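Model it.
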Amino acid sequence: MTNRISFAVEQIAESATLAVDSKAKAMKADGKDVIGFGAGEPDFQTPAHIVEAAVAACKDARYHRYSPAGGLPELKEALSVKTLRDSGLELQPSQFLVTNGGKQAVFNTMMTLVDPGDEIILPAPYWTTYPESIRMFGGIPVEVFAGADQGFQVTVEQLDAAKTDKTKALVFVSPSNPTGAVYPKEEIEAIGRWAVENDIWVITDEIYEHLIYGDREHHSMPVLVPELADRCVVLNGVAKTYAMTGWRVGWMAGPPDVIKAASNMQSHATSNVCNVAQVAAIAALEGGLDDVAVMLAAFDERRVTMHQMFNSIEGVKCEEPQGAFYAFPSLEGLLGRELAGSVSRTTLDLANVILEEAKVAFVPGEAFGAPGYARFSFALGIDELKDGITRIGDLVSS
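Modeled.
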């Protein structure tokens, strides 16, 4: 008897971040006062000028029909301008594929590059979707762990030790989800040169490029190492920067042959991204970053507050987030201790105890390849944030 579900799909784990968010929302629907730190999306509304552009597009008959599977020509032109302006990376409009959000950009890239048996080096902690999308196409995620003692940043030496003759690509993310780490320029360049020297592809996710704090800066690897451009795919989207998670517009950019192949595949999978959302994305890219600056200032206040509050709780250690909107504290000091009459051996167990007892939801580190840690989003109001962390502190000290 054949399997009802294909092997490729059956082995995929549920998105832990969405699972936590769903459970928290279900408890709220039952009338429980739950504070959720799980969702990876800004709590701000999409800026008005973007919404207005979408409303106008709804009334324009041009957008009531199918459009090119790879993206509206005017959006691809805007992406070319934006990428040069923001990153210094010069790409032709034909080198972009517009996707249904950042996740489809990841999916398309893996499907286009990965063959069964290929090894993909995946620095950990990692976003939960990366290893699943690698496995889906028969690839093998090779995890390289960098903890808080390394600032959550892998070294060239670690990457070299993980490399084999089956290594096809490296996944590189800065700023990082889930840790908030931002690699310095010299380290990004060193990793890029290592990839060139070893003929290894780099899949670099830059979706948090504008969410950086203090004097840190974002640097695009193919700009620092131009020789890498022919073996590099850049992933991005409007979701985080412009508070457009529900609009589902992302993109992948890279060598012409890769983009052409991925576009052909997408033409058979989803065809074009919603035209109205694409027009909204154009308005976002061309509308400046004033709204982003307001959002970033709010995130910065929350970031500082969360960092300080976590480090005031006995048994919790938290590195200061440098980018994105996540803190990634170590909760190892809480493991093996009795809390509310139970002893947690893993952060997965601890997350359940804290959700049940303190009504606070977060994503345990196991979801990111980092047991002992946890991801807390600070994309929620400052008062709610303070209340949530205070609840954890009260539970720990009781």
